[in-house]
Amino acid sequence: MPVIEQLNYSGAQMAALSICIAGGSIVVSHVNDAGFWLFGKFTGATEAQTLKTWTLMETILGTTGAIVGMIAFTLLS
């Protein structure tokens, strides 16, 4: 990662940046996600119910993770 290396981030800042990226990667999950189908089958929910609950949960989880990563990065700066 040559671009990031030029920014001279500490190891802790790199970890916080990784958390931000990971959190942002799971926002707005849909039927293309294997977890969507597993959740639906295990809970017995219909596709519409799974879409409403799984997507909302993943959006909250991803947004929260990204925000926590941003706060951690700021505190470590």
TrEMBL record:
Keyword Transmembrane present in the record's keywords: the answer is yes
Mark the transmembrane ranges. 12-31, 51-76
Superkingdom field: Bacteria
A GO term from the CC aspect: plasma membrane
A GO MF annotation of the entry reads: gluconate transmembrane transporter activity
Question: What start and end residues bound the annotated signal peptide?
Answer: none
Stated name of the protein: Low affinity gluconate transporter
